[in-house]
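Worked example

This section walks through a single chain of length 381. The input is the sequence exactly as stored; nothing has been trimmed or padded.
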Amino acid sequence: MAVNENVIAGNICKLYTRPPILTGYTYEPEEAYKARDDNRLLAIRIETNRSCNLRCRYCYAQSSDELVDKLDFAALEQIVSQAAELGAKSIVVIGGGEPTLHPQFRELISFIRANGMIPMVFTNTTNITAELACFLFDNNASIMGKCDSLQSSVQDYLAGSKGAFKKIRAGLNHLIDAGFTNPDGSHLLRLGVSFVSCRMNLSEVEDIWHYCRTNRIFPNMEVLTPTGRAFDMLQNQYLSTEEIKEHKLRLLKIDRKHYGYNWLAYTPLVASGCLQHLYSLYITLEGNVRPCAPTKFDQHPAFQRDGVYPYNVFRRSLKEIYCDPLFKYVRNIQKHLEGKCRDCSHLNECIGCRGYAYAVGVNEGAGPLKALRSECRQCFK
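Given that input, the structure is written out below as tokens.
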């Protein structure tokens, strides 16, 4: 008798629930596709400053304490207001460096909230004091912190800064004490930690996962991508497809056994599909707009017009860029996918990691759109 995989999958889903998501960071597939079809943004990711007190060896933006570039507050207000007009529900303050170093960081958080959106902040947490944690909690923020390792030596090495581990943990504890791990809704979390998985910390991934789940923290496992500083500093740390597969399946087993969660193992973000190309835009410190951080259209000559990248919020409105044929193409990328992604039965919740596909493809000499639509190299389906 033939085994019907769809029936088995359906029965499994009845035994478990979907894992919780981080408010304002990820959106469920149904909401993502509806936003795309309604020509509505759900979020933007915006760089605020290039300065950073760490020097992470995997940083896509290659930020450091030597870089002082920042967006002035008037520009931030302009971008946030235009995103609100396009229907955005959250503003992901991703820094480009460490956003808490921006001199008007608090004003930005207050402005986002005043415009009816969720401030979703990426931070290394080293600057999070007890008082700042309370301010962020009171302004309805969601926080994505950092936890690349539970070992100080490994965390300090990956962060490129001696003593980083101790400061990171102190900041996380302040956030926990402020109430970020006691969300109102069981499915919506307000605190996450991001960890970039590589050969150096792979043996710790399960322990980090348990730490997150038991503390009601969103575990944001990313896979080291060959872009930014990692391209030069961590060449020997990339994971193979087999290693990615092994650890995703282990984490799925852990979630089913210990926490009652079930999720698709093939999606690029573990336990949370990455569909941001459908509903989000990434805006650099220079105002250049990308589909996501690693999809660096602004650095590719194919998109230059007379030596200038035209998709810039200081040259065109965010609405004009959002409605441009190039970004419409990106939002409908599932129609153009190649390789095993093209006819995948899971396209309703996964389009692969377009940023990773783009970065690897361009590095290998492919044209930018061909790289963008190529099959996901991380997928083991």
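What to look for: The chain is about 35% helix and 10% strand.
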